[in-house]
Amino acid sequence: MIVNDIEVLFGGQAGDGSLTTGDLIATVFKRMGLDVYTFKDFPSRIRGGHTNYIIRAGEHPHYGVADYVDAMVAFDLECVEKHVDEMRPGGFIIFDNTSEQLTEAVRRADVTYYEVPLAKIAKEDLGLELVRNTISLGVLSQLTGMDPAIVRSLVTRQYERKGEKVVAQNIGAVEAGENYVKEHFASTPSGYGLRARPDVDRLIMMGNDAIGYGALAAGCRFMAGYPITPATDILEWMAKHAPKYGGVVVQAEDELAAINMVIGAAFAGVRAMTATSGPGQALMTEGIGLAAVTETPIVVVECARAGPSTGMPTKTEQSNLNHLIFSGHGEVPRVVLAPGSVEESFYLTVGAFNLAEKYQVPVFILSEQAMCQSKETTPRLDLSAVRVDRGKLHRNGPLTFGEYKRYEFTQDGVSPRAIPGTEGGMHLVPGSEHNDAGVITEDARNRVRIMDKRMHKLVSMRPDLPKAIVHGDRSAGVAFIGYGSNRGPIGEAQDRLAAAGVPSRFLQLRTLWPFPEEEVRDFLAGAQHIFVVENNMTGQVERLVRYVTGPMPNMHRVLKYSGRPFRPIEIIEAVLEVVPHSNGVVPDRTSQPVHSAAPAS
Amino acid sequence: MATQLTPKDFATATPSWWCPGCGDFGVLAALKQSCAELSLQPKDVAFISGIGCSGKISGYLHSYAFHGVHGRALPTATAVKLGNKDLTVIVAGGDGDGYAIGAGHFLHAVRRNPDMTYIVMDNQTYGLTKGQSSPTSMLGYLSGTSPAGNPDAPLNGLAVALAAGGTFLARAFSSEPKAMVEMIKEAVRHPGFAIVEVMSPCVTFNKVNTYKWFKENVYHLSDIEGYDPSNRAKAFDVLTQHGKIPLGVFYREIRPTFEALTLKDSPAIAGLDIDRIDPKLAELQEAYA
Ligand SMILES: Cc1ncc(C[n+]2csc(CCOP(=O)(O)OP(=O)(O)O)c2C)c(N)n1
Ligand code: SF4
Ligand SMILES: [Mg+2]
Fold first, then answer.
1. Which of A37, A221, A494, B130 has the fewest C-beta atoms under 10 angstroms from its C-beta?
2. Residue A580 predicted with pLDDT over 80
3. Predicted complex ipTM
4. Which DSSP category does B146 fall into?
């Protein structure tokens, strides 16, 4: 039996309530002490269209999807047709056979099928079609050995708001599912089991929520944004919570307005941010230049999705990095940070606000659909570790007008900032080139000096930038470089490669701009094969690395741009193609043999 | 108690840049006069301007001034006001800035009704880029980009604002300083989004809408017997009539400001202590436990 290691794919038509049940399953796994990662694979429409929700649980900290799906809960035939090839040999499918029947084409000999008339039971036995999803939870619970008490307490918590009757209906639905399994499938065990471990003080949180929470903790009290998938969650999270702490959230008329509002609020002395995705980021480009040249501290969250243009709004990609680093006219300082987990999303967001104010620059937080809309179990977030550093913000009384210079030339390039309301600090903040006093000028000597001042901040900020993390064996010949959501699949690939006798090192970049040249150079010393793993077509990080290293014969791009995150096997296979190894097969954690090709995804 | 300031106290050391005779001089003078008469303090004035000849004005008013990008002054200013509602926020920009590239923001600022003053310095042309037609240029206006005559009907910004829910609408003429000062003062006092459109001739490029032309083509609302600026229908009627250009305060209405609706009674955000972490923040994690 496979214990405490399962990937569930919960699928049907969009808008059928599978989100709620998927979240419930994830929380049950979390309460049973497992490490959980969820991935939403939604169509870009509200109702209809195939949708699925992956919930992976295990005893490991590598957040990401697995090589295979272990358990599918399919509400229609389309779901089985689409994903049957992704099933692990030995896995099982729960299928609602109320109105459709399984076809021969989707029957695999190495997969167990549990056909349950979910909709029929819901309607005829329970009198409520809506509880179909909850019945499936009961079926899954019984087949995998979820703790019935935990399932009941979470179902109760989920439906409490809707009253006792709804709670009772859903508990009844769980029981109906459990009973159906007991009555019909007693002799066909699923082969999967769960064993509860202590759930010690952990959270299960979505990346976007962690960013919102980090912003609030860091003192962000103004947010403006324009709804866009997959960033909207942050705007909604802040709209719900910021007012309780004296803050305000504005739904702007477009992203041009949003970014200029954030700049206005920051000019007034408020920690401010916006969150958007590719198309909105394109519109915000103008504002980034303005923030940078006026040295106004702002934080911009980019929740990347598949481009170009409208692209695939609900799919994941890492193709916007070039845009964040290079977009805009003129040359301006900016910072790009990329968290590699939900937990890091919180701490890096806090750090982003401090960097923005300390160095008076725009700071990007780069997340991706596969992380910002994914949930992960994470240790409690430590508020005592949060420090607010407002840099050279002038807060001690009046200034002397005439002496105070907003853009004073200093050693570190950072000038004291006076905000409106401060006696004696009056000045002009111009998007046009200006001198140290903020007076607009095209003087040649001043131009060079003030450009140097602004850009020098990229140097002086170096000690404060989040460091890259080296995972694995620092002296191994195989080296990975990656960032963001690929932290999970690369980490998992590393473990499995090591078990097969191929040790590796992995540099998880967390500051992508200014590019950490020294860290990359140090990390690569002695590496024999370098794999730069990214979700884009042109190898954006690999190019940056090559700027640092020059041509490298043994540098390989491992790219995926189907809109879906890497499965670890895809990374493993890319390595084994070029690295000599003894046994052709690298077992994954469940010791199932890995078959030739990666499943289509 | 701060001493009573004079217009000079609102001057900066930066010499103004406009062509001799430009209508924008009049706007600047009236603005300084209004600030002094309203007993404002420079430290409490946030002055945000657009891009254009008109937009240069932020360099000449002693205050906390922000000269942003073309067309975006209103969103910037809205957020300055939200960030520190104790400030007096004034915005100024050209007809192109406000009614072309910034037209979207204009409508939404009107809808939101933040408590601030917006001065549209209307010269019916693009001054800074050398005289092309603007959204308020007259039909047939000849310019580098409209050599065969401007084919676009001029935009009636105040009428549009009235339709969109504007709460204070006025029009002044740059060479009638006294009336302009009164309108600006009233606009600043108005608790809401107050628009003062100023006919501000571009002597260099607009050879049609000159001082002389204006003198012949304006009239005053005070000439209309019993004109009542709380009568919305009448205001719309006057604003949309063809013929001579009316000057004065067209419409006034009190409705809740954006700050009142969003910030309620909470203190100015910029003054909040964010250095200490509110222990209540820890409780938010329970929903995820
Ligand atoms: C995004 C952008 N597009 C174009 C310009 C060039 N530009 C500067 S001012 C201006 C128009 C100015 O007209 P208006 O707003 O009426 O101001 P005026 O100069 O007439 O006072 C233009 C098109 C710019 N600065 N930014
Ligand atoms: S070009 Fe026209 S608008 Fe610009 S400063 Fe000269 S007169 Fe004034
Ligand atoms: Mg103009």
1. B130
2. no
3. 0.98
4. B
- The answer, yes or no, to whether residue A589 has pLDDT greater than 50, is yes
Helix (H) or strand (E) segment spanning residue A115 = strand A112-116
Residues A505 and A473: their CA atoms lie apart, in Å, by: 5
Distance B95 CA to ligand 1 centre (A): 9
Any idea what the Cα angle at residue A306 is, between residues A300 and A307, rounded to 5°? 85
**Poorest-confidence range of A11-15, A139-143, A541-545?**
A11-15
CB contact under 8 A, B80 and A267: yes
DSSP bridge pairs for B45: B88
B277–A209 CB contact, under 8 Å:
no
Same domain, A208 and A184: no
Min distance B35 CA to chain A CA atoms (Å):
15
Closest ligand 2 atom, residue B17 Cα: 5
Domain boundary among A173, A200, A227: A200
- B143 Cβ below 6 A of ligand 1: no
Is residue A275 located within the same domain as residue A305?
Answer: yes
Distance between first and last Cα of chain B: 54
* Per-residue model confidence (pLDDT) at position A588: 65
A37 part of contact set with chain B, CB < 8 Å: no
**Token duo for residue A442:** 């095209």
Whether residues A271 and A184 share a domain: the answer is no
Q: What span, in angstroms and rounded, lies between the C-alpha atoms of B83 and B65?
A: 15
pLDDT in 10s for each residue of chain B, 289 residues: 457 899 999 999 999 999 999 999 999 999 999 999 999 999 999 999 999 999 999 999 999 999 999 999 999 999 999 999 999 999 999 999 999 999 999 999 999 999 999 999 999 999 999 999 999 999 999 999 999 999 999 999 999 999 999 999 999 999 999 999 999 999 999 999 999 999 999 999 999 999 999 999 999 999 999 999 999 999 999 999 999 999 999 999 999 999 999 999 999 999 999 999 999 999 999 999 9
- Assess if residue A590 is contained within a domain: no
- The answer to whether A36 faces chain B, any CB pair under 8 Å, is no
Q: How far is B116 from chain A (nearest CA, A)?
A: 14
Is residue A327 in a domain? yes
Atom of ligand 1 nearest to the CA of A286: 1
CATH number, domain of A357, equals 3.40.50.970
Ligand 2 pocket mutation pick from B122, B123, B200 by most atoms within 8 angstroms of CB: B123
Question: CB of A488 within 8 A of CB of A62?
Answer: yes
**Which residue of chain A comes nearest to B83, CA vs CA?**
A265
Nearest-atom number in ligand 1 for the CA of B97 is 15
In this structure, are A178 and A225 located in the same domain?
A: no
Query: Taking residues A417-428, what's their average pLDDT?
Result: 98
Q: Which CATH superfamily is domain B21-287 in?
A: Thiamin diphosphate (ThDP)-binding fold, Pyr/PP domains (3.40.50.970)
pLDDT digits (tens, 9 = 90+) for A293-351: 999 999 999 999 999 999 999 999 999 999 999 999 999 999 999 999 999 999 999 99
Amino acid of residue A522? D
**Domain end position, chosen among A360, A385, A410:** A385
Confidence of residue A599 (pLDDT cuts 50, 70, 90): very low
CA–CA distance from B207 to each of A390, A561, B142, B157, B204 (Å)?
52, 58, 9, 22, 7
Q: How far apart are CA A239 and CA A237, in angstroms?
A: 5
Q: Find which of A428, A432, A442 to mutate to test the B interface (most B CBs within 10 Å of its CB).
A: A428
Q: Based on the fold, state whether residues A192 and A63 are members of the same structural domain.
A: yes
Residues of B in contact with A153 (CB under 8 A): none
Q: Rounded to an integer, what distance in angstroms lies between the CA atom of residue A374 and that of residue A383?
A: 22
Task: Examine residue A149 and state whether it is found in any structural domain, yes or no.
Answer: yes
Ligand 2: lining residues by beta carbon, under 6 Å? B 18-19, 22, 24, 53, 123, 127, 202-205
Which residues in A lie closer than 8 A to residue B44 (C-beta atoms)? 420-421
User: Residue B223 has which token pair?
Assistant: 């000439």
Q: Is residue A450 situated within a structural domain?
A: no
> Which helix (H) or strand (E) is A472 found in, with range?
strand A469-472
pLDDT-derived band at A44, boundaries 50, 70, 90: confident
Give yes or no: residues A164 and A17 share one domain.
Answer: yes
* A373: containing domain: 204-385
Q: Does one domain contain both A294 and A374?
A: yes
CATH of residue A26's domain is 3.40.920.10
pLDDT digits (tens, 9 = 90+) for B55-67: 999 999 999 999 9
